[in-house]
Amino acid sequence: MPTEYLDEFQPLLNKEIKAKKRPKLPNKSLLLAACAACIGGTFQYGYNISIINAPTVYVQNFINQTWRERYQEDISHDGLTLLWSIIVSVFTLGGFLGASIGGTLSVKLGRKGTLLANNTFALAAALLMGLSYPTGLFELLIIGRLLTGINAGIGICVQPLYLGEIAPTAFRGAMGMGTSIFITGGILTGQVIGLKEVLGREEYWPILLSTTCIPAIMQLLILPWFPESPRYLLIDKGDAEECKKALKQLHGSSRCGGEQEEIEKEKNNLAGFKAKKPWDLLADRSVRWQLLTVMLLNAVQQLNGINAIYFYADYVFKQSGIPVDKIPYVTVGTGACECITALTCGMLVESLGRKVLITGGYTLMSICCILFTLTLTFQDASPIFPYLSMACVFAFILSFGLGPGGVTNVLTTELFTQTSRPAAYIIAGSVNWLSFFIIGMVFPFIVIGLQQYCFLVFLAVCTLVAIYIFLVVPETKNKTFLEIQSEFQSSKHRKAHGADGAGTTLLSTSM
Predict the structure, then answer these.
(1) Residue among 4, 66, 7, 275 at smallest CA distance from 161
(2) Are 306 and 396 in contact (CB under 8 A)?
(3) Does the N terminus or the C terminus of the chain have fewer Cβ atoms within 10 A?
(4) Rounded to 5 degrees, what are φ and ψ at 72?
């Protein structure tokens, strides 16, 4: 056969060889390492978001009681609202602080080392919040919530980094979905623990808030048995022997050779480069589109209307005739719904690809925004509309969990190489937490001003980001980090369809 024909078919032969080498199931050690990382990482994030809702009234009573004992008068309504708002929102400030230092710590202490050290914040927070009631110091709740925020900020920054780096290329998407699965699992667990039948009664609220120590203790007991990220060991530390040991434990002896070869290729490609700082990454024109993409996706993850759906959920459930005392159980149903969807997304991400799931998720969310606006507008026109609104709540949550909720973190890992990835997580995490804070501050005013028409704003957000992903973001499944970087930088791929048949078209610009 002529050489030109061999050259033409070589990429196809390489893909076929890769497919044959690709393992069908991940190693058990790899799955256990992922669970150990997640239980003290993004599980804590989800758990601390939901756990604060159940004891709202009890904590406010405690603040009022403490104020009366100190100053011989009840606290004013505005003062109580302000203190409670600080207790809730200081979590996002802590998250921003955690995200801003998480990437730096992951370079200095390693991915695994940072996750283990991060539990210090969770344990200190649990102690302070548990002591707040017996000491009569509600200020300890504020400090405790700040520390849980720092813990969550570091966890959501470093854990996806660890998962993306320990996973083989064939399972990187599914492993990355562990971030989303454990966030939703944490939210669901917090909702269940907060029920009156468990720890949701008034006398138990200090114990309820201090249970954040349990995932931290579990991670401290389990994660030390698993290795550091092989990529960190070889590329950052230059320790080939420890990298090989880590790969053997995580992937098995028969599978570690190919992965180590890929890591060595990346190391050679990055020879002479040091880990970048966030400001270096912002100034680097070669990764401008990758950085713009992850910043946009992380901002939209908070600004897409998911918080509005949860805000309206109680109102919709009441309108549907569900008794007020039963609404917490229906809310647990929404948490279970999101958790199941995250698991489903984890199973589909390697077969359908990242681009299909995230674009499809935002498209479905756009449709739900239209339907939810209509059902809320005609809520009193017919008895059937409250039930249609309830269906929209679940459909929106399902659509969010199907793609945007999980694939965003996977893409943040995949769009950058080793020296850029920690800085990318610092920037992406900071944008995410700032967006979380902004939506928390601005959202009540949007609802008051626009009422149910606020979902038209979220419709515009979801539609525009779906179009951006379709036009700009390439499919990344089954590609090495170097291949993904090359696809972003190649003008050929910016102008033509991707070779994998995904129909990816990248914008060509001098930005």
Answers:
(1) 275
(2) yes
(3) N
(4) 60, 30
> What gap in Å lies between CA 232 and CA 241, rounded to an integer?
13
String of DSSP letters for 146-192: HHHHHHHHHHHHHHHHHHHHHS-GGGHHHHHTHHHHHHHHHHHHHHH
Among the listed ranges 94-108, 114-128, 490-504, which one has the minimum average pLDDT value? 490-504
How far apart CA 417 and CA 287 sit, in angstroms, is 10
pLDDT of residue 14: 53
- CB–CB of 261/231 below 8 Å? no
Average pLDDT, integer, range 351-360:
90
Evaluate whether 407 touches 358 at the Cβ level (below 8 Å): yes
CB 112 within 8 A of CB 162: yes
pLDDT of residue 256 exceeding 50, the answer is yes
Q: State the amino acid at position 498 in one-letter form.
A: G
Report the Cα–Cα distance between both ends of the chain, in Å, rounded.
44
Amino acid type, 420? S
Q: Residue 52: helix, strand or coil by DSSP?
A: coil
Distance of CA 408 to the CA centre of its chain: 7
For 338, the token pair is 């999101």
Q: How high does pLDDT run on average in the chain?
A: 85
Pair 403, 346: CB distance under 8 Å? no
pLDDT at residue 5, rounded to an integer: 43
Q: Is the dihedral of CA 328, 56, 215, 157 positive or negative?
A: positive
DSSP 8-class letter at 305:
S
Tokens of 320: 């549907």
Measure CA 259 to chain center.
Answer: 26
Q: Which of 226, 201, 250 is nearest to 40 (CA)?
A: 226
List alpha helices for 403-496, DSSP H.
404-414, 421-450, 454-472, 481-489, 491-495
Q: In sequence order, what are the residues at sequence separation of 6 or more whose Cβ sits closer than 8 angstroms to the Cβ of residue 339?
A: 181, 184, 185, 187, 188, 401
pLDDT digits (tens, 9 = 90+) for 183-228: 999 999 999 999 999 998 999 999 999 999 999 999 999 999 999 9
The per-residue pLDDT for 502 is: 39
DSSP code of 379? T
